[in-house]
Amino acid sequence: MTDMCKLEEKNMSAIDLVSEINRLRRERKAVILAHNYQLPEVQDIADFVGDSLGLSQQAAKTQAEVIVFCGVHFMAETASILSPTKTVLIPDLGAGCSLAQSITAEELMKWKVEHPGATVVSYVNTTAEVKALSDYCCTSGNAVKVVESIPREQEILFLPDRYLGQYVETVAKRPLHIWGGACHVHAKILDEEMETARLAHPDADILVHPECGCSTTCMLKSLHQTSGQKMFIYSTEGMLKHVEKSDAKEFLIATEVGIIHRLHKQFPDRRFYPLSPNAVCEYMKMITLPKVYETLRDMKFEVKVEASLAAKARLPVERMITIV
Ligand code: 13P
Ligand code: SF4
After folding, report:
1. How far is the CA of 11 from the centre of ligand 1 (A)?
2. Per the count of CB atoms within 10 A, which of 1, 183, 201, 225 is most buried?
3. Ligand 2 close to Cβ of residue 75 (< 6 A)
4. pTM of the model
5. Does the fold of domain 186-274 match that of domain 100-178?
6. To which CATH superfamily is domain 100-178 assigned?
7. pLDDT for the residue 225
8. What's the number of CA atoms in the CB half-sphere (13 Å) around residue 213?
9. Which atom of ligand 1 lies closest to the CA of 186?
10. Which atom of ligand 1 is nearest to the CA of 235?
11. Which long-range CB contacts under 8 A does 167-172 form with residues at least 24 apart?
């Protein structure tokens, strides 16, 4: 039985649900943060919708006592690291991330032993244990700046996403040791699909997330603008900022499809085409409106990073939110 069916059984309409969420969020002094890949109805009730960087910044500065994190587990952990005195809740504990699972703390420890003295830069899509072993964290929105802030002669281990690593290496013009991880959703967005979509929408600006399998080819095309079409690599929030300043009427979007809702809402006069309509993150979609309601009602499920682990992970995460 779906969450919506269960609610219907209890005679609770979608309108009741939203008003109950609103009542409970006031009562609990809670803020609802939602990632750009969340379901449309979840984005619509959130106090703030954004990318990993924006959500971390919000989690760090909020005055609310409770943070309901509508995103995946590593995002809620990051909020707990930044705001240890707040209650961080996630509506479904099963909302994981294939990319965060692509490196363990044990694997990172071994890698560090092979490169003594190297600086570790971890993408925010990692577990708290991996963050605690890192010198810097970054998001797709500031990965280049974070690497550029480290002295050029310093050896860097970059993890876990290989496509983001190749992007940073090319733009920052310095060699990195790159872990071979990938996101199972973005890695499937490949060059062939890009070529077909590009030919179907020749006037569209093409906006590509650096985790995509096609990002290396796209990046080279974007750096030299050799495709005859405007191509850019961005984090999800970067895509929204690009649309705001672009004169283009059409955009091809290479990332998880959830962002299309926000793009349509914010720019109703433009047209957006998902490059890969099948790019759906099942983890992000685990968060539903009924689950948000139950989270606020029952104050579940708490994500709390243990104090000594959080203390070790805090410096790299704080560096991430300040280097922008
Ligand atoms: P952003 O940092 O661009 O929001 O991306 C997060 C993510 O999980 C991409 O798959
Ligand atoms: Fe993780 Fe990929 Fe889902 Fe982003 S889209 S949360 S990287 S599995």
Report:
1. 36
2. 183
3. no
4. 0.94
5. yes
6. NadA-like (3.40.50.10800)
7. 61
8. 15
9. 10
10. 3
11. 167/143, 167/210, 167/215, 167/216, 167/219, 167/233, 168/143, 168/144, 168/210, 170/216, 170/219, 170/220, 170/223, 171/144, 171/219, 171/223, 172/144, 172/147, 172/148
Q: Which atom of ligand 2 is nearest to the CA of 256?
A: 5
- Ligand 2 centroid distance, CA of 71 (Å): 10
pLDDT tens for each residue of 22-42: 999 999 999 999 999 999 999
Q: How far is the CA of 80 from the centre of ligand 2 (A)?
A: 19
The CATH class that applies to domain 186-274 reads alpha beta
Domain ranges of the chain: 3-96+284-307, 100-178, 186-274
Q: For position 312, what pLDDT does the model report?
A: 98
Q: Domain 3-96+284-307: give its CATH code.
A: 3.40.50.10800
Ligand 1 geometric centre to CA of 171 (Å): 19
